[in-house]
Amino acid sequence: MVKGNRFGIGPVETPTTGTRRSRDLGPMGVAVRESAASAQEASDALVEQRRQNAADAREFRAARDEGRVLVRLPVGEIEVDQLPRDRLDLEGIAESDDMEELKASIRERGQREPIEVYLSNSGRYQLKKGWRRLTALRQLHAESQDERFACAIARVTTPDADRADLYVDMVEENVIRQDLSFAEMAQIALALAADPQAGVGDPDAAVARLYRSLHKVKRSYIRSFVALMAAVGEDLPFPKAVPRDLGVDVARKLGDGLEIPRSRLAACASVEEQNDLLRGLVQGAARPVDVRAAAAPTARQKYEFRVGDTKVTARNGEFRIRAACDYSGIERTVLERAVRAFQDALSRKE
Questions:
Q1: Which residues of the chain have pLDDT under 70?
Q2: Distance from the Cα of residue 92 to its chain's centroid
């Protein structure tokens, strides 16, 4: 019994100085705090993801505009009519042995190098670079109907504000590879000068614009061929076969007033006949050199001509016929008779 309290109840003990009531979170508080922290982390991650997506989108658009993005385009949706090509005799190139070799490579290994296209004002894809690759894919698809060749791997660029830059981009690759003849380089310079949308107007200025990366001596050779092609280009049957020095000599004589008999030049049936005629004119000969006295063609020289719709290629040890005919469907005996008749005709000529 506690003294001083008649009811026998002692005083309530107060907590000692310095102790505090426990404020530990209960299960619900812990759950709420963890949920809030998780929500904050998710929000931060979402903000960072959106920032990264925006940066990636800007980078992609820049890469696409600069032609660093490759896409697959159906070969039938790519047009080639807005720029003159930097190749002469496109039909001959399309049917050449080099084209067959390119097709064999694509057939075996696929398209290794992309072509380059741009969107025209009409919204159509126009070819800038890669005419041979596009042609090879089109031929392969037409021959086999294989879907591997239905699309071309391409860079898509925005059209240049300066149309002359389209010409520069087109020839740049082939010039670097030294894959264009002087006649072809001269012809595209003439095309640029004649293009009213390019605003160049002068062949000399066109040469300077297209081939500014070349040595000035080589640009001088190209200007000589510009003079030659401007004078007789349409009547020059084998322009790519004109040697550099001969072309320069003819251009110099043209500047001195030389007149070339264009009809006689256009009638030349071989490279040798054409070049011998030009040499005779340069040397002041009264008549062209007799090509029958020229040396026999070497194994690397070839002649091409057409008989109706049939294209014939003749070279040392080879005579090739290309026509829209399935020769595999003709009986062997018929083909043998045709070959014997061909051989007999040659023998009678000899």
A1: 1-26, 29-30, 159-161, 175-178, 285-303, 305-306, 308-309, 349-350
A2: 18
Q: Tell me, what amino acid is at 147? A: E
Of the residues 126, 159, 192, which one is the last residue of a structural domain? Answer: 159
Where does the chain show beta strands of DSSP type E? 70-74, 78-79, 115-119, 125-129, 151-157, 302-307, 310-315, 318-322
Is this prediction's pTM over 0.85? no
Burial tier of 246 (Cβ tally within 10 Å: 0-12, 13-18, 19+) = middle
Q: Does residue 202 lie within any of the structural domains? A: no
Give tens-digit pLDDT for 5-58.
566 666 656 555 555 655 666 677 667 777 777 777 777 777 788 888 888 888
Which range of residues forms the domain containing residue 316?
Answer: 297-335
CATH number at residue 135: 3.90.1530.10
Nearest to 189, CA basis, from 88, 303, 308, 69: 88
Considering 159, 192, 223, which residue would you say is the last residue of a domain?
Answer: 159
Amino acid at 45: A
User: Is residue 244 assigned to a domain?
Assistant: no
Note the pLDDT tens digit of each residue in 279-305. Answer: 999 887 434 444 444 444 444 456 676
- CA dist 37 and 47 (Å) reads 15
Q: Rounded mean pLDDT of the chain? A: 80
Domains in the chain, number: 2
